[in-house]
TrEMBL record:
Necessary cofactors: Ca(2+)
One CC-aspect GO term: cytoplasm
Domain named Sulfatase N-terminal: residues: 30-387
GO molecular function, one term: metal ion binding
This protein's record includes keyword Hydrolase: yes
PANTHER family: IDURONATE 2-SULFATASE
Domain of life: Bacteria
Identification of the protein by name: Sulfatase
Keyword Isomerase part of the UniProt annotation: no
PROSITE patterns in the record: PROKAR_LIPOPROTEIN, SULFATASE_1
Length: 477
């Protein structure tokens, strides 16, 4: 009996010794899945639009934090994605990232981009689809020139499947079964073709994204930063007919303030939209045609939502969802008749207000909506904060980590710019400052909102907001 007790004690001592000698198992840093959706208004069920069918994005919103008052920093694809991917303001044109690339080629010192920053800190970085302005991240005539990289040093792999659309430029403005935009006036502004999801380019993007998830999650040595960019609901509005059919019996709400503004504003003639074939119809005077457009846009949203669902389902299937931060981001808003505009490119609310959802599975306070005002510039420092990576001093945004952990955290005023004008949005007002000094001021606490310029009535408030706008921009451009 005594010998057995001694052997038992010795075994315990040995176990304690062995356990003490073992190195503590390192927990891999969280992965990042960034999902970019082109031209996506915050017109989703999880953002208050009951007529929109968006179950997959809504499910993500219920798991994470849905930022109801997220604003982009520019109402156009190129400059908006520049701010997302660099954490800085850039030029207000679509070639902003290519200009940055040229600076790198010329030997100028340029701050690292967000994917490059994470790559430097041990992440495998991959982009699929439209993440930077050009799908696949290359320039050239057909956006497939491997010597003309939009974001040098950023991605281990930057992929853009083209399949029947021949090249990235063809896929960007493609419709069903390989139709490519050659002459926009001969291409229909909307379409709903019979077939499965793969008859449009986003189906191919989804398939490549699923394969990349399989590859990345099989490697347990390094965390990954996977960015997936979907094209729809970008013009032309094309989605499989099954998605349009979902809206057959759904009543759409009326469009607010659908008249052209009186006086000087950043209103425009909807040139991007009007270049397509519209069968000689004008949605500003033809209400039936206007509703057709809105339904086809909604079909594209539901189609994009289905692709998001496939990616999230694959992430869950691999088990990597337990250690992956998911960010869903719309690159800007889109007018569907508000202010008699069909498109983006204005500095009105509809061009700048876009969805943002962040889900960190480690955060206990997930699953709520916040009205804290935030901007796209905040995403870079937030992801650094959540992954415990050094936050570079050159980024202009602020981390949203506190908001993710505490529902009532207050946000901040936000800025945006386009050629010829800049804007500051506060909780109560929007100020638009044109480069020649002309000012627009709108009060969001009134029923008129952005239909009545009150700048002449409140000179002190105008001066205060102009000072704040200039202090935030630091006269950078």
């Amino acid at each position: 009996m005594r010998n057995r007790k001694l052997r038992f004690i010795n075994c315990l001592i040995l176990l304690v010794f062995v356990a003490g000698c073992q190195k503590p198992q390192q927990v891999k840093q969280p992965n990042i899945l960034l999902i970019c959706v082109d031209d996506l208004r915050p017109e989703l069920k999880s953002f208050g639009a009951d007529h929109i069918i968006s179950p997959n994005i809504d499910k993500l919103a219920k798991k994470g934090v849905a930022f109801q008052s997220h604003y982009v920093n520019s109402p156009s694809c190129g400059p908006s994605r520049y701010t997302l991917l660099t954490g800085n303001y850039g030029t207000p044109n679509n070639n902003a990232l290519f200009l940055r690339a040229q600076q790198i080629t010329n030997g100028q010192t340029v701050n690292q981009s967000m994917p490059e920053w994470f790559k430097t800190h041990g992440y495998t970085t991959v982009s699929v689809g439209k993440v930077s302005h050009h799908p696949g991240g290359r320039g050239g005539l057909n956006w497939n020139d491997s010597t003309n990289i939009e974001m040098p040093n950023a991605w281990d792999r930057h992929l853009m499947p083209v399949e029947k659309w021949q090249h990235p430029r063809g896929a960007m403005h493609g419709l069903a079964y390989g139709e490519i935009r050659v002459n926009a006036s001969e291409m229909d502004v909307f379409q709903s073709a019979e077939g499965h999801d793969d008859i449009y380019p986003d189906g191919a993007i989804t398939n490549v994204a699923l394969n990349e998830l399989k590859t990345l999650t099989a490697d347990n040595k390094k965390p990954f930063f996977l960015a997936v960019g979907f094209l729809k609901p970008h013009l032309p509005f094309g989605a499989p007919k099954a998605y349009l059919d979902k809206y057959e019996d759904i009543e759409f709400p009326e469009v607010n303030h659908n008249q052209k503004p009186i006086g000087r504003t950043t209103w425009h003639k909807s040139g991007e939209f009007n270049q397509y074939n519209k069968w000689d119809k004008d949605p500003n005077t033809d209400s039936e045609f206007a509703e057709e457009i809105r339904r086809h846009y909604a079909a594209c949203v539901s189609y994009a939502d289905a692709q998001v669902g496939k990616v999230l389902a694959e992430l869950k299937r691999t088990g990597a969802d337990k250690n992956t931060i998911v960010v869903l981001w719309g690159d800007h808003g889109w007018h569907l008749g508000e202010h008699a505009i069909w498109g983006k490119h204005s500095l009105f609310e509809e061009s700048l207000h876009a969805p943002l959802i962040i889900h960190d599975p480690r955060v206990k306070q997930n699953g709520f909506k916040t009205n804290a005002m935030v901007e796209t510039l905040d995403i870079f420092p937030t992801l650094c904060d959540l992954t415990a990576i050094e936050n570079p001093k050159f980024t202009k945004g602020v981390s949203l980590k506190d908001i993710l952990n505490k529902q009532d955290t207050i946000g901040h005023s936000v800025l945006a710019y386009k050629p010829g004008a800049k804007t500051l949005r506060t909780k109560t007002h929007r100020l638009i400052l044109h480069n020649d000094g002309f000012v627009e001021l709108y009060d969001h606490t009134t029923i008129e909102k952005e239909t009545k310029n009150i700048a002449d009535k409140y000179p002190e408030l105008v001066n205060k907001l102009i000072d704040e706008l200039r202090a935030k921009f630091h006269n950078e451009f």
